[in-house]
Design goal:
Elements: H1 2-42, H2 46-49, H3 51-87, H4 97-114, H5 116-137, H6 146-156, H7 161-201, H8 204-207, H9 216-248, H10 256-285
Length: about 290
Amino acid sequence: MGFLTDWIVDFIKEMLINGIMGNLGGLFDDVNNRVGEIATTVGTPPATWQPGVFNLIRNLSESVVLPIAGIVITFLATYELIQLIVDKNNLNEVDTWIFFKWVFKTFIAVLILSNTFNIVMAVFDVAQHVVNNAGGLIAGSTEVTLDMMAEFEAALWEMSPGPLLGLWVQTLFVGLTMHALNIVIFIIVYGRMIEIFLYTSLAPIPLATLSNREFGGMGQNYFKSLCAIGLQGFLILVCVGIYAVLVQSIAISGSPISAVWTVVGYTVLLCFTLFKTGSVAKAILGAHG
Protein backbone atom coordinates (compact mmCIF):
# COMPACT_ATOMS: atom_id res chain seq x y z
CA MET A 1 0.00 0.00 0.00
CA GLY A 2 2.87 2.33 0.85
CA PHE A 3 4.43 1.58 -2.52
CA LEU A 4 1.21 2.59 -4.30
CA THR A 5 0.99 5.82 -2.31
CA ASP A 6 4.60 6.71 -3.12
CA TRP A 7 3.95 5.99 -6.81
CA ILE A 8 0.89 8.27 -6.85
CA VAL A 9 2.79 11.03 -5.05
CA ASP A 10 5.72 10.74 -7.45
CA PHE A 11 3.31 10.73 -10.42
CA ILE A 12 1.58 13.89 -9.20
CA LYS A 13 4.93 15.56 -8.46
CA GLU A 14 6.23 14.65 -11.92
CA MET A 15 3.16 16.18 -13.60
CA LEU A 16 3.41 19.37 -11.53
CA ILE A 17 7.17 19.68 -12.05
CA ASN A 18 6.82 19.15 -15.79
CA GLY A 19 4.11 21.80 -15.84
CA ILE A 20 6.24 24.23 -13.83
CA MET A 21 9.32 23.65 -15.96
CA GLY A 22 7.24 24.03 -19.13
CA ASN A 23 5.81 27.34 -17.92
CA LEU A 24 9.19 28.72 -16.85
CA GLY A 25 11.15 27.39 -19.81
CA GLY A 26 8.95 29.06 -22.42
CA LEU A 27 8.60 32.40 -20.70
CA PHE A 28 12.27 32.75 -19.81
CA ASP A 29 13.24 31.85 -23.37
CA ASP A 30 11.14 34.80 -24.58
CA VAL A 31 12.76 37.22 -22.14
CA ASN A 32 16.24 35.83 -22.80
CA ASN A 33 15.76 36.31 -26.54
CA ARG A 34 14.44 39.85 -26.07
CA VAL A 35 17.27 40.83 -23.71
CA GLY A 36 19.78 39.30 -26.11
CA GLU A 37 18.38 41.45 -28.92
CA ILE A 38 18.96 44.64 -26.93
CA ALA A 39 22.70 44.77 -27.53
CA THR A 40 22.21 44.09 -31.23
CA THR A 41 19.50 46.72 -31.62
CA VAL A 42 21.18 49.55 -29.71
CA GLY A 43 24.43 48.76 -31.49
CA THR A 44 22.90 49.18 -34.95
CA PRO A 45 23.22 52.55 -36.73
CA PRO A 46 19.92 54.14 -37.84
CA ALA A 47 20.90 53.85 -41.50
CA THR A 48 21.27 50.05 -41.29
CA TRP A 49 18.57 49.27 -38.69
CA GLN A 50 15.71 49.93 -41.12
CA PRO A 51 17.14 51.27 -44.42
CA GLY A 52 13.68 51.82 -45.87
CA VAL A 53 12.55 53.95 -42.93
CA PHE A 54 15.86 55.80 -42.92
CA ASN A 55 15.56 56.68 -46.60
CA LEU A 56 11.98 57.85 -46.04
CA ILE A 57 13.04 60.10 -43.15
CA ARG A 58 15.95 61.48 -45.13
CA ASN A 59 13.77 62.29 -48.13
CA LEU A 60 11.19 64.00 -45.93
CA SER A 61 13.88 65.98 -44.14
CA GLU A 62 15.59 67.13 -47.32
CA SER A 63 12.41 67.78 -49.31
CA VAL A 64 10.08 69.24 -46.68
CA VAL A 65 12.04 70.37 -43.62
CA LEU A 66 15.20 71.67 -45.29
CA PRO A 67 13.39 74.43 -47.27
CA ILE A 68 11.81 75.61 -44.01
CA ALA A 69 15.24 75.62 -42.40
CA GLY A 70 16.49 77.69 -45.34
CA ILE A 71 13.84 80.30 -44.61
CA VAL A 72 14.81 80.25 -40.91
CA ILE A 73 18.51 80.75 -41.63
CA THR A 74 17.71 83.57 -44.11
CA PHE A 75 15.58 85.33 -41.50
CA LEU A 76 18.23 84.92 -38.79
CA ALA A 77 21.02 86.14 -41.08
CA THR A 78 18.99 89.22 -42.05
CA TYR A 79 18.02 89.87 -38.44
CA GLU A 80 21.65 89.59 -37.32
CA LEU A 81 22.80 91.99 -40.06
CA ILE A 82 20.21 94.55 -38.94
CA GLN A 83 21.35 94.13 -35.35
CA LEU A 84 24.97 94.73 -36.37
CA ILE A 85 23.99 97.97 -38.13
CA VAL A 86 21.83 99.19 -35.25
CA ASP A 87 24.46 98.38 -32.66
CA LYS A 88 26.94 100.63 -34.50
CA ASN A 89 24.76 103.76 -34.29
CA ASN A 90 23.20 103.39 -37.75
CA LEU A 91 26.55 103.08 -39.55
CA ASN A 92 28.00 106.23 -37.93
CA GLU A 93 30.63 104.17 -36.14
CA VAL A 94 30.79 101.15 -38.39
CA ASP A 95 33.83 98.93 -38.93
CA THR A 96 34.07 97.04 -42.17
CA TRP A 97 35.28 93.91 -40.40
CA ILE A 98 31.80 93.29 -38.96
CA PHE A 99 30.54 92.58 -42.46
CA PHE A 100 33.29 90.04 -42.99
CA LYS A 101 32.30 88.55 -39.64
CA TRP A 102 28.67 88.39 -40.74
CA VAL A 103 29.60 86.79 -44.07
CA PHE A 104 31.79 84.23 -42.31
CA LYS A 105 29.06 83.32 -39.77
CA THR A 106 26.48 83.03 -42.53
CA PHE A 107 28.81 80.82 -44.55
CA ILE A 108 29.35 78.55 -41.53
CA ALA A 109 25.58 78.41 -40.90
CA VAL A 110 24.88 77.43 -44.51
CA LEU A 111 27.70 74.87 -44.41
CA ILE A 112 26.24 73.28 -41.27
CA LEU A 113 22.76 73.24 -42.77
CA SER A 114 23.91 71.66 -46.03
CA ASN A 115 25.65 68.88 -44.07
CA THR A 116 22.87 68.24 -41.58
CA PHE A 117 22.62 64.51 -42.18
CA ASN A 118 26.40 64.06 -42.07
CA ILE A 119 26.51 65.81 -38.69
CA VAL A 120 23.63 63.79 -37.27
CA MET A 121 25.06 60.50 -38.50
CA ALA A 122 28.49 61.45 -37.12
CA VAL A 123 26.94 61.75 -33.66
CA PHE A 124 25.50 58.25 -33.93
CA ASP A 125 28.73 56.88 -35.40
CA VAL A 126 30.56 58.03 -32.28
CA ALA A 127 27.79 56.60 -30.09
CA GLN A 128 28.00 53.37 -32.08
CA HIS A 129 31.72 53.11 -31.36
CA VAL A 130 31.09 53.57 -27.63
CA VAL A 131 28.25 51.02 -27.60
CA ASN A 132 30.29 48.41 -29.49
CA ASN A 133 33.21 48.78 -27.09
CA ALA A 134 30.84 48.55 -24.13
CA GLY A 135 29.22 45.44 -25.59
CA GLY A 136 32.60 43.75 -25.69
CA LEU A 137 33.47 44.71 -22.12
CA ILE A 138 30.16 43.84 -20.45
CA ALA A 139 30.73 40.18 -19.73
CA GLY A 140 28.30 37.55 -18.50
CA SER A 141 25.31 35.85 -20.01
CA THR A 142 21.91 37.43 -19.66
CA GLU A 143 20.17 34.08 -19.86
CA VAL A 144 18.61 31.78 -17.31
CA THR A 145 20.84 28.90 -18.41
CA LEU A 146 20.10 25.19 -18.74
CA ASP A 147 22.31 24.46 -15.73
CA MET A 148 20.26 26.84 -13.63
CA MET A 149 17.04 25.22 -14.83
CA ALA A 150 18.39 21.74 -14.06
CA GLU A 151 19.36 22.87 -10.57
CA PHE A 152 15.93 24.40 -10.19
CA GLU A 153 14.23 21.14 -11.24
CA ALA A 154 16.30 19.17 -8.73
CA ALA A 155 15.16 21.55 -6.00
CA LEU A 156 11.52 21.01 -7.03
CA TRP A 157 11.79 17.27 -6.40
CA GLU A 158 12.52 18.04 -2.76
CA MET A 159 9.12 19.72 -2.39
CA SER A 160 5.81 18.06 -1.53
CA PRO A 161 2.80 18.06 -3.92
CA GLY A 162 0.98 20.83 -2.01
CA PRO A 163 3.67 23.52 -2.42
CA LEU A 164 4.29 22.29 -5.98
CA LEU A 165 0.64 22.89 -6.83
CA GLY A 166 0.89 26.40 -5.42
CA LEU A 167 4.07 27.03 -7.37
CA TRP A 168 2.45 25.77 -10.56
CA VAL A 169 -0.40 28.28 -10.12
CA GLN A 170 2.15 31.01 -9.46
CA THR A 171 4.10 30.18 -12.60
CA LEU A 172 0.94 30.62 -14.67
CA PHE A 173 0.63 34.15 -13.28
CA VAL A 174 4.34 34.75 -13.68
CA GLY A 175 4.05 33.69 -17.33
CA LEU A 176 1.54 36.47 -18.02
CA THR A 177 3.75 38.96 -16.16
CA MET A 178 6.89 38.01 -18.05
CA HIS A 179 5.15 38.18 -21.42
CA ALA A 180 4.01 41.70 -20.53
CA LEU A 181 7.58 42.62 -19.53
CA ASN A 182 8.78 41.15 -22.80
CA ILE A 183 6.51 43.60 -24.64
CA VAL A 184 7.71 46.48 -22.46
CA ILE A 185 11.36 45.74 -23.29
CA PHE A 186 10.47 45.65 -26.99
CA ILE A 187 8.68 49.01 -26.75
CA ILE A 188 11.56 50.69 -24.91
CA VAL A 189 14.34 49.53 -27.22
CA TYR A 190 12.50 50.00 -30.49
CA GLY A 191 10.92 53.21 -29.23
CA ARG A 192 14.43 54.64 -28.89
CA MET A 193 15.09 53.90 -32.55
CA ILE A 194 11.82 55.60 -33.56
CA GLU A 195 12.82 58.59 -31.41
CA ILE A 196 16.13 58.76 -33.29
CA PHE A 197 14.26 58.95 -36.59
CA LEU A 198 11.96 61.66 -35.21
CA TYR A 199 14.92 63.76 -34.09
CA THR A 200 16.65 63.18 -37.41
CA SER A 201 13.64 64.21 -39.50
CA LEU A 202 13.57 67.74 -38.02
CA ALA A 203 17.34 68.18 -37.72
CA PRO A 204 17.70 71.05 -40.26
CA ILE A 205 15.50 73.50 -38.33
CA PRO A 206 17.38 73.52 -34.98
CA LEU A 207 20.76 73.29 -36.70
CA ALA A 208 19.85 76.39 -38.74
CA THR A 209 19.86 78.41 -35.50
CA LEU A 210 23.27 77.31 -34.22
CA SER A 211 25.20 80.34 -35.50
CA ASN A 212 22.81 82.89 -34.00
CA ARG A 213 23.49 84.26 -30.52
CA GLU A 214 19.87 84.76 -29.48
CA PHE A 215 18.24 81.72 -31.05
CA GLY A 216 21.25 79.39 -30.91
CA GLY A 217 20.00 77.82 -27.68
CA MET A 218 17.49 75.83 -29.73
CA GLY A 219 20.21 74.26 -31.82
CA GLN A 220 22.47 73.67 -28.82
CA ASN A 221 19.70 71.91 -26.88
CA TYR A 222 18.87 69.82 -29.95
CA PHE A 223 22.49 68.76 -30.31
CA LYS A 224 22.63 67.85 -26.60
CA SER A 225 19.43 65.80 -26.96
CA LEU A 226 20.89 64.07 -30.01
CA CYS A 227 24.01 63.12 -28.06
CA ALA A 228 21.81 61.99 -25.17
CA ILE A 229 19.96 59.51 -27.41
CA GLY A 230 23.29 58.09 -28.51
CA LEU A 231 24.48 57.89 -24.89
CA GLN A 232 21.22 56.16 -23.96
CA GLY A 233 22.36 53.12 -25.95
CA PHE A 234 25.41 52.82 -23.69
CA LEU A 235 23.24 53.14 -20.57
CA ILE A 236 20.90 50.44 -21.88
CA LEU A 237 23.85 48.08 -22.21
CA VAL A 238 24.92 48.92 -18.65
CA CYS A 239 21.42 48.01 -17.44
CA VAL A 240 21.59 44.71 -19.33
CA GLY A 241 25.00 43.97 -17.82
CA ILE A 242 23.69 44.62 -14.30
CA TYR A 243 20.67 42.41 -15.03
CA ALA A 244 22.96 39.59 -16.18
CA VAL A 245 25.02 39.72 -12.99
CA LEU A 246 21.91 39.80 -10.79
CA VAL A 247 20.26 36.84 -12.55
CA GLN A 248 23.41 34.74 -12.40
CA SER A 249 23.71 35.40 -8.65
CA ILE A 250 20.31 33.88 -7.82
CA ALA A 251 20.56 30.91 -5.48
CA ILE A 252 18.33 28.32 -7.20
CA SER A 253 19.12 25.64 -4.65
CA GLY A 254 17.61 27.63 -1.82
CA SER A 255 13.89 28.35 -2.31
CA PRO A 256 12.55 27.64 -5.81
CA ILE A 257 9.56 29.91 -5.26
CA SER A 258 11.81 32.72 -4.10
CA ALA A 259 14.11 32.17 -7.08
CA VAL A 260 11.24 32.46 -9.56
CA TRP A 261 9.94 35.70 -8.08
CA THR A 262 13.46 37.06 -7.77
CA VAL A 263 13.98 36.65 -11.51
CA VAL A 264 10.64 38.34 -12.13
CA GLY A 265 11.64 41.16 -9.79
CA TYR A 266 14.97 41.63 -11.57
CA THR A 267 13.19 41.73 -14.94
CA VAL A 268 10.76 44.36 -13.64
CA LEU A 269 13.77 46.30 -12.36
CA LEU A 270 15.39 45.99 -15.80
CA CYS A 271 12.28 47.48 -17.44
CA PHE A 272 12.19 50.34 -14.93
CA THR A 273 15.86 51.19 -15.43
CA LEU A 274 15.46 51.00 -19.22
CA PHE A 275 12.68 53.57 -18.93
CA LYS A 276 15.01 55.83 -16.95
CA THR A 277 17.96 55.67 -19.33
CA GLY A 278 16.61 58.43 -21.58
CA SER A 279 16.06 60.94 -18.77
CA VAL A 280 19.39 60.05 -17.15
CA ALA A 281 21.27 60.61 -20.42
CA LYS A 282 19.57 63.99 -20.94
CA ALA A 283 20.25 65.00 -17.34
CA ILE A 284 23.96 64.16 -17.73
CA LEU A 285 24.29 66.25 -20.90
CA GLY A 286 22.03 69.05 -19.67
CA ALA A 287 19.45 68.61 -22.43
CA HIS A 288 15.93 69.92 -21.83
CA GLY A 289 12.71 68.18 -22.75
